Amino acid sequence: MIKMLSGDEAVARGAWEAGVAVASAYPGTPSTEILENLAHYPNTYAEWAPNEKVAVDVAIGAAYAGLRAMAAMKHVGLNVAADSFMYASMTGMEAGLVIVSADDPAMHSSQNEQDNRTFAKFARIPCLEPSDSQEAKDMTIAAFGLSERFDTPVLLRLTTRICHSTSAVELGDRMDGAPTEPKPFPRNPAKYVMVPGNAVKRHPIIEQRILEVAKFAESFPYNRIEPGDPALGIITAGVAYQYAKEVFPTASILRLGMTWPLPELMIRQFAATVEKLIVIEELDPFIEEAIRLMGIRLEGKSIFPLVGELDPRVVRESAIKAGLLPISAHIPLPEVEVGPLPARPPVLCPGCPHRGVFYVLNKLKVPVNGDIGCYTLGLIPPLSAIHSCGCMGAGIAVAHGAVKAGSPERHVAVIGDSTFFHTGIPALINTVYNRSRVITIIMDNRVTGMTGHQENPGTGVTLQGNPTTAIKLEPLVRALGIKQVKTVPAYNVAEIETTLKEYLKLDEPAVLITLEPCVLLPEVRKTWIPLEVMADKCNGCALCFRIGCPAILKSDELDARLQRPKALIDAALCTGCEVCAQICPRDAITFRPVEMSEA
Amino acid sequence: MRESINFLLAGVGGQGTILASDVLVNVGLAAGYQAKQAEVHGMSQRGGSVTSFVRWGQTVYSPLVGAGEVDVLLAFEKAEALRNLNQLRMGALALVNLAAIEPVTVTSGGQPYPDDATMRQKISEVTQEVIYVDGEATAQGLGNVRAANVVLLGALSALMERERLTGAELSAEAWLKVIIQKVPPKYVELNRQAFNLGRKAVTGLG
C-alpha cells in the first residue's frame, strides 16, 4: 500500500516495521511528529521524556535489556544528550539503538544551525541520511540492522526538508525476527560499566568497529553511483541529492546514504571516472573535508553556501557563478517591486497567558533572562521584555551568573513549565545553594506549547494518553529550598505586579508561578468570549496597544478632543483574557459577564 | 495534462493552508503523478505567514520549488499573494483569495497594508492569468467560514481545467474524494458544497 507520508511519519513507520519496542523523545521542531505518530502504533511503547538526555538514556536502557529502541530529538537536543550518546558508543548494546537527530538548516525554528553529522564522527557512530520519505522509512529499518550487526548506536540524521516534506511511501508489515521479549539484563561489567579500567579496553574496540563499518559502507545499498556524463561528478547526500538531480539531470552522481564513515574505495573509484568532482551538501563541508583528507581534489563550499538551506535555485545560481552551468541556465524572476509589505512576526497569540507577565516586566524595567518556548516571543515590541535567550534551561543560571558578577540590577528569569522540567530544576537549585537573589517566573500554561501542545510531567497524561501523576510545581519548588513561592493566575496583572515588587525587596531567591492553561487548548477555546471597547469612554490613550495583542486594533473613530484613534477589539480574535481591560485607565473595555467567568 | 506542475500555497496561520496542500499532494497522486509537498511554517503561531510547495510530475526530485519556477499560485490572503509574487514564473496561473488579515504590525505598529488596486496592479505585472475569489464570503454563506480553503480548492480545480493544466483524467469527483478523506465526517457535506461553490465561482455557472 502506498501512502503519502512526511519524513517524520515515515521514520515512525520504519521504526514500527523494524519492531521498535521502546521510544523516547523530547518534543522539538522539526522532530516532534516522529514520536507523536509512533505513539499510535500497536505493541510499541513511546513516551515524552523530560529532556533529550533522559530520552537517550531510556533508549539505551531498553537496548541493554535486549529490545530495539529509539530516541528522537531536534539537533540541539543532541547537545543535551551528548554525554549519553558518547557512552552508548563505548558500550554498544544488546539490541538495535537508533538516535534520530532532526537538524534545522536555515533555523526555521531554532537558535543555531549546527550540523550534527559531526557528532557521528566525534562518537565513532555511523550516520545515515535519507533523501525522501521512502528512504526515511527504509533507512530507519536499515539503521536497526546496522546497529545490531556492528554493536553500535546509529545516528539517523534528518533535516527540516526531510522531516516536513511529504512523498509517497510503500508501507510494509512489522517485521518478524526483531526481539519481542527482553533478555535478562546483562551482567557484563567489562562492556557495560565504563569505569576507566573497562573503558580503556573498550576504546580500541570502537575504533576498530568504525573501520569495520567503513568496509561495510562500500556495499551499503543506500550508497550508490548513478553513472552519467563523466564531465561532472557530484557527491551528495540527504535532501541536497534531490537538488543535485534537479539542477544537473545528466551528471554522474555518487549518492551517500551513509555519510559517516565514508566508503573510501567507492569514492576513489567514482572520482577516477569523472573529470571534475564537486560535493553538494547542506551546512558544513563534512563530506568535502573527509574526501579532501583522502587526497582527492574536489570543490564544495567554494561553490555552494556554507550557511542556510539549499534549494534548486541556490544550487543552480551557485553553479552558474562557478561556471559549472551556462549563464543561459539562469531562471529569471519577475522582479516586481511589490512595495512595503507588513511583516508577520511570530507573536504571542491573542489571549496568551504570558502577555500580562511581560507587560509587567516591561513596566518594571528589569533585565529578563529568557528561555526556549512560546514565551521567548516576549522579546517582540511593544512587550520587549526578554534580554537573553540561548538554549533550553539557560535563563535561570544566566541570571544567577550576572548577579554573581555584581550586576547592579535584580534579574528575573522566565521559563515555561515544560522547560523547567527539562533543565530548569538544577539551575534553580543553584540559586538556592549558592544564594542569589534571582527571581524566577515559571510560566505554567499546562502544556508544552511551542511545539504544538504535547503532554509533559506536569499535565497528568502520558504521550500514549494514559493518566499519570501530575507533578505539582509549587511543592517541587519548595522542596528545592525556595522559601518565597507564590502561584498567581496568569491573567491577574495587578497581583503579578504586586508580587514582583515584593520580591524585588527580598534578599533571597524567589519563584513566581503564573498559572493559566494555553488559550489554544481545546477546552479553553470553549470559554472564549470577546470583549468590547466602549467607544464613548475610550479617549485613544493607546495604553492597551502596549500589550501587543493582535486582537486590539486602531479604530477609524478619533477621540473628538485629542484627535487620536480609539481602540477597537476584533471579536474574531479576542478570547476575553481581560488583560487589556485591567490596564485600561478609563475602564473603557468590558470585562466578561461575571456568571460566565465563574462557569 | 501538463507533464509537471509546481504549486505555491501562501496564507496566514489558521487559514487551512497546510490542509489544502495536503489535499493537493494527494490529488496529484490520484491523478497519476509523482507528487511531493514541503511546508514552511517555522515559528508561525496563529497569525504568522505559512507557505507550502506542492509538486506534480512524472519524476519529482526536489520537494522545494526554486524562485521563478512556480506555475500555480494559490494565495489565501492578499498581502501573502504579494509577498510571494516574485516566486512566480512570468505568466503563472494565480488564484487569489480576497481576504485581508492585518498583522499586529499594521493594527498597532502603523505599517501600511497594501490596498486592493495596488495589489491587482502588481499581480498583473507578473500574470494576466489571475482570478480573485472571496472564499470567506462564500464559506460564510454556507455557515462556516473555515471552509474557505475548500472553496479555493474548488476554484483551483475548475481554473486548472479551464486553462488545460489538467484534463478529463482528473475529475471534480477525484478532488472531492481526497477532500472527504481529509475532513471530519460531520463536515463532509459542508466541504462538498464549499468545493462546488468554488468551482462555480470560476465556471460562472453559479
What does this protein structure show overall?
The complex is a heterodimer of chains A (599) and B (206). The mean pLDDT of chain A is 96. Chain A is an alpha/beta fold and 599 residues long. In chain A, helix 1 packs across helix 7, helix 3 packs parallel to helix 5 and helix 15 crosses helix 19. Chain A folds into four domains: 216 residues, Rossmann fold (3-Layer(aba) Sandwich), CATH 3.40.50.970; 105 residues, Rossmann fold (3-Layer(aba) Sandwich); 170 residues, 3-Layer(aba) Sandwich (Rossmann fold); 56 residues, no CATH class. A seven-stranded mixed sheet of chain A has the order 3-2-4-5-7-6-12. By secondary structure, chain B is α/β, with parallel strands linked by helices. Chain B has a single domain, classed as Pyruvate-ferredoxin Oxidoreductase, domain 3 (3-Layer(aba) Sandwich), CATH 3.40.920.10. Chain B is built from eight helices and six strands. A six-stranded mixed sheet of chain B has the order 2-3-1-4-5-6, sandwiched between helices. The longest helix of chain B is centred in the C-terminal third of the chain and has 16 residues. At the A-B interface, strand 8, helix 11, helix 14 and strand 19 of A face helix 1, strand 2, helix 2, helix 3 and helix 4 of B.
Low confidence ranges of chain B: none
What is the count of distinct domains of chain B?
1
State the total count of DSSP E strands of chain A.
20
From the alpha-carbon coordinates, what is the Rg of chain A to the nearest angstrom? 27 Å
**Which structural class do you get from the secondary structure elements of chain A?**
alpha/beta
Q: How much strand content do the residues of chain A show?
A: 15-25%
Strand order in the sheet with the most strands of chain A:
3-2-4-5-7-6-12
* Topology order of chain B in helix (H) and strand (E) letters: EHEEEHEHHEHHHH
Top-tier CATH class of the largest domain in chain A: Alpha Beta
Determine the most extensive contact between two protein chains.
A-B, 54 and 55 residues
For the termini of chain B, the CA-CA separation is 26 Å
Proportion of helical residues of chain B: 40-55%
Shape of chain A: globular
* CATH architectural designation of chain B: 3-Layer(aba) Sandwich
Q: What is the annotated CATH architecture of the largest domain in chain A?
A: 3-Layer(aba) Sandwich
Give me the count of strands of chain B. 6
